[in-house]
Amino acid sequence: MVDSSFQSVSFLRQANALMRKNLCYQRRNLGTILRLLVFPILMCLLLARLQKVIDSFTVRVDENAECQCDCSIPEKIAKSCEQQCILMSISSSNICPIRRPRRWPPLFQLPEGLGEICEDIESCPAQVLLTGANQSLVEELGKNLFPENIYSPSLIIEDRLAISEKILLATDGKPPATYVFEKAFFKNTPLLTVQTHCLFNFDLLLLTGEFGSIRLPQELGCLKVQPLWRNNSSIITAELMEVILGNDSKNKMRNAILGVYDFLDTNNHKFNATVWYNQTQQTYGSEPGHLTRIQKALNMASNSYLQFLRGTQAKLILEFIAEMPKPQSVSPKFDISALIGPLFYAWVFQLLFPVMLNNLVYEKQQKLRILMKMHGLGDRAYWLITYSYFLFVSSAYTTCFIMFGTLIGLKSFTMNNYGLQFLFFLVFMNLQIALSFLAATFFSNVKTSSVIGYLYVFGSSLVGSFLFLNLLKSSNRESLVLLLETFPPFALFRGLHEFGQYSFDAQLAGGLGMGWKDLGESGLKLVLIIMITEWILLVLLAYYLDQVVSIGGGVRKHPLWFLNRKSDTCSCTPLDNPQRKGFDVLVNVEKSDVYHEREVVERLLQKPAKGYPMIVDRLKKVYPSSDRNPEKHAVREISLALPQGECFGILGPNGAGKTSFINMMIGLTNPTAGTAFVNGFDIRNEMDKVYCSMGVCPQHDLLWEMLTAREHLLFYGRLKNLTGKELTNAVEESLRSVNLFDGGIADKQAGKFSGGMKRRLSVAISVLGNPQVVYLDEPSTGLDPASKESLRKVIKHAKQGKAMILTTHSMEEAEALCDRIGIFVDGRLECIGNPNELKARYGGVYIFTVTTSSAHEKEVEKLAHRLSPNTDKIYHISGTQKFELPKQDIRIAEVFRAIENAKKLFTIQAWGLTDTTLEDVFIKVAKGAQSSDDLYCYNDQ
């Protein structure tokens, strides 16, 4: 049954045809694409403008002062503008940028409250524990850790920064939150020197230093320290635990341990040391990682080893501690792109979802997807090209957004690794495309999909901002957060939030944002794994549902089609065996011509014969009952065999089942029972192969309004395996044949065509590429007489070597084009034959028409009955009457004589005698068809 001579179009040519069509379509749609690309740019500009507004509320810095002067400070606190600036710097250190931060000498951290507990500092020396592999070396190094008594009268006039090189300054106060203001150098804050022997009382020594023009007096005390040797670090550990767990606080402080120096395997050629410091008050506040005073403890160890090697004059000077830059002064303090930007970014990145969804649903709603499939476009090529096109648009869209955001300085983009951002957004774009394909299977209307799509975008982003973000900050909701991240918008929001937080933290710390090393710590590694896994699953699920649920409005496949099961997609079989259990058998008395056609079909099915591209076997379509309406039998067991070169016309009143029959043949609907073979392929389960040899002109024009007539034909020509010069010639010939070539009409967009021009283009598409079977559903609708005549020539020329089915309401068109005609009434094929046979079979009469005045209607009726006793009156209105005169009862000459005699008795305004037309046959068959109830016999054996 299969015509092996027919070769389907290769996958690459299908993909090439669709890609070229998409490029042409998008070139016509360039304005919409540009407007789409402008949206992320506008969002970036909006964020940049908001950032400027927020920056305008921050403290402005004068180039010549530490901070802007605030004259609201009372005069008794600060009597000059310079003092106001200094005080404001101290009190507003977290918000005021310091252009020239002060340099403070490094201090050694003491245990908290040491100076307050010791009544006599000399009587309770602190301890520093020493250990290492070489005891003699370690004891020598211990002596160099602390300076001897270096009292000199010159200290009285030296600046505090100068004497910090000669003596070790220490404090038991809390470390500062910022080094803008080191409070240990101000009055009422303990400040001590640490020495092995306190021979001089520093209580009366005034240390002076400049902070602007203000002199700060400071009383110094002396803390005696005693270096002690321990054999190993284990002993030190046990001793520290005993001190920490002791109950006598005074004893605890009397034996206070300032720190531990473990010099390990240090020798004359190698320096290796570990410093243990007392962590009391080493951090401020409740969060770790802030400024600490351990720099000086490390410097003491290095200095001690250097003096051991080079003498007491050698020094490794640690002069100052300064904030360069001060973290809290990094501008801006409030980065809107990092903190609230994720909400805007989520809207921008997801905006393509409704665009892609509408594109897919539009093709399904307008039946463009199934029309492409009817002309040979396979599902694989459609998915590959459409997916690739969406990925290209998404990539361009995202790249423009990131590039412009980078140019205007949005920190979420500039401070994070671009490779990491590219990977994350690439994965999300693929996931979003897969989600678009999946969602498109559940929509058939563009307006509905558009509303749902935009609600999804804006609603999910708002929920992510106000709900998901709060859950993300909760430490005990990891499982719930992980579950929510399987929802693509929340996965996107998690990534945007992490990028924003890392960039914000980097601004405060003066470092870099998120890099590859932070992938695991930030949680993005797990998010990427979730999105990649979900992407694969959604692509497979979307493709599966597209085949068994949607397929763009065409025939759906069996749910287990991927197992290569040849199952009937509608789970039914032809009613050709009355003995089969569970089937209703239709008992119907058929006309002889219809019965003969059924016998031809049965003979061809038993013994296949070449030359019959289409064989229809008892095709039936029943629409189920709905809204309390009974089920509708649209097509009732049609059997039909079409040889090559024949144009078969289907006539019938509205609702007779013509379009339902065509829809089953072209794959728009599934048959309820029966089947049909096109080129040997079964329409129930081999429709994909049927499409490769089929041309269709649907009842309604299915065209892309943005494409020209030439671009339509080029696209469908490539799907018909036409290439190069052959394609160009075929397209030009088709355009000329339907009068769409001259006057630049060929390069005019189809959306600007009239209804007749669209019909002509649809016919040209259906016959392009020499398909084996062509379906023309009312092709001449809306055409003027000249265009109809031109179209008839095209169809007559195109039907050579093809099987063609034509539905029409024009009897003249059917008689001129069709080799055979079948008349449908109430879903049945009532008669079949060529036009002359039908007129002879159902005509057999002359139509006698007479027009007179109303007063002579009785005389005309008597005249007709005198001509033939079997006369039948079929029409009567206002003096005009029509009669059917059986041909066997009259002779034409007798009619003429009777009319001449009647004219002598009364006035005859007009009269005529015509043979039966096809229209008369149609009316007679339609009226005479008995729509009797079907008889069903149910066999339950």
Task: Considering the chains and any ligands shown, give keywords for the structure.
941 residues, Alpha-Beta Plaits, seven-stranded mixed sheet, six-stranded mixed sheet, 25 strands, rod-shaped, disordered N terminus, disordered C terminus, nucleotide-binding, ATP binding
Structure commentary:
The chain is of the alpha/beta class and 941 residues long. It is 44% helix and 14% strand. It is built from 33 helices and 25 strands. A hairpin with a 2-residue loop joins strand 5 and strand 6. Helix 1 (11-28) runs antiparallel to helix 25, helix 11 (341-350) runs antiparallel to helix 17 (446-473) and helix 27 (755-767) runs parallel beside helix 28 (785-798). The model is unreliable at 1-6, 59-67, 71-79, 203-216, 281-290, 326-332, 565-588 and 930-941 (pLDDT under 50).
Short recap of the structure:
With 941 residues, this protein is an alpha/beta fold.
Write the layout of secondary structure elements.
Layout: H1 11-28, H2 30-55, H3 81-91, E1 108-109, H4 114-117, E2 126-131, H5 135-145, H6 160-163, E3 169-171, E4 192-195, E5 210-211, E6 214-215, E7 221-229, H7 233-244, H8 249-254, E8 257-262, E9 274-277, H9 295-310, H10 336-339, H11 341-350, H12 352-365, H13 368-374, H14 379-407, H15 411-414, H16 418-440, H17 446-473, H18 478-484, H19 488-509, H20 519-522, H21 524-550, E10 584-587, H22 592-606, E11 614-623, E12 632-642, E13 646-651, H23 658-666, E14 673-678, E15 681-682, H24 687-691, E16 694-697, H25 709-719, H26 724-737, H27 755-767, E17 773-777, H28 785-798, E18 803-807, H29 811-817, E19 820-825, E20 828-833, H30 835-842, E21 845-852, H31 857-867, E22 872-877, E23 880-886, H32 892-903, E24 908-915, H33 918-928, E25 935-938
Parallel strand pairs: 1-3, 2-7, 2-8, 4-7, 13-18, 13-19, 16-17, 17-18
Antiparallel strand pairs: 3-4, 5-6, 8-9, 10-25, 11-12, 11-14, 14-15, 19-20, 21-23, 21-24, 22-23
Helix pairs in contact: 1-14, 1-25, 2-11, 2-14, 5-9, 11-17, 11-19, 12-16, 12-17, 14-16, 16-19, 16-21, 17-19, 19-21, 25-26, 27-28, 30-33
Pfam family, one: ABC_tran
GO molecular function, one term: ATP binding
Domain ABC transporter: 617-851
